[in-house]
Amino acid sequence: MIQLLGLTICLLGSTITAENITCSNFCKRGVDNTTETCNTTTGECIYGCIVGFAGPNCSYECPDTCIYPAENETGTCKYITGECVHGCEDGFYGLNCTQRCSDIDANCGRCASNYNDKIECKQCRTNFYLSNGKCLYCNYWCLVVSGSATPLCRHEDGYCNYGCRPGRYGFTCGLKCSSTFRDVCNRETGKCSECGYPSYCGPTCKISCQYGCLLQQCNQTCQCTKGCVATHWGEQCRSPCNTNCMKPPDYTRRVCNGIDGTCLYGCNGNKYWESQCTELCSNGCIKGTCDQESGVCIGGCTTTQVYGQSCDESCSSGCLNGTCDQESGNCTEGCTSKTVYGSRCNISCNENCDGGTCNRDTGYCDKGCKTGTYGNKCDIQCSKSCMGRACDRINGLCTFGCVLGRYGHQCEVICNDKCLNLKCERIDGQCTYGCILDYFGSECNFTETLEKNDEKEISNEDSTMFWITICGWSLFVIFMVTAVAVDVLRRRKKRKGNRNQADTAIEDQSPISLITSSFGNKPLTMRHNFNVLYIRNDYKFSIMIEQFGLTILLLGTVRAEDITCSSYCMTGPDNTTDTCTTTGDCLYGCSTGFVGQNCMIECSFGCAFSSQNDIELCNSSTKECFHGCKPYFVGATCSFKCPDTCMVSTDPKAEVCNISTGECLFGCLYGFAGPNCTIICPDKCGISEEVYIQTCNATTDECLFGCKQGFGGPDCTTICQNTCIRPAFNDTETCDITGTCALGCTAGYAGHNCSYECPVNCSTPENSTETCNSSTGECLHGCKDGFAGLSCSIKCPENCFSLNYETCNYTNDECLHGCHKGFAGQNCSYECPVNCTYPTMDGEETCNYTDGTCMNGCNKGLMGPDCSYPCPENCKLPDRDGEDTCNFTSGECHLGCNNGFDGPNCSFECPKNCLFPSENETGTCNFTSGECLHSCNNGFAGGNCSVKCPGNCASYDRGVDICNATTEECLFGCKDGFYGSNCSERCYDVDGNCEKCTARHDNNGIECIQCRSHFYMSAGNCLSCNYWCLTVTGSIEPTCRQEDGYCNHGCKTGRYGFLCGNKCSSTCRDECNRETGKCSECKYPSYCGATCKISCPYGCLLKQCNQTCQCMKGCVATHWGEQCQSPCNTNCIKPLDYTPHVCNETDGTCLYGCIGSEYWGNQCTEPCSDGCINGTCDQESGVCIGGCTTTTVYGRRCDEPCSSGCINDTCDKESGNCTEGCRNSTVYGSRCNISCNENCEDGTCNRDTGYCDKGCKTGTHGNKCDKQCSKSCMGRACGRINGFCTFGCVIGRFGNQCELICNDKCLNLKCQRIDGKCTYGCILDYYGSDCNFTEALTKNDEKEISYEDNTMLWVTICCWFLFVIFMVTVAAVLVLRRRKNRKGHGNQTDTSIEDQSPISFQQGYTSLQKEQCDVKNYENLQL
Question: H or E segment at 262?
Answer without folding.
Answer: none
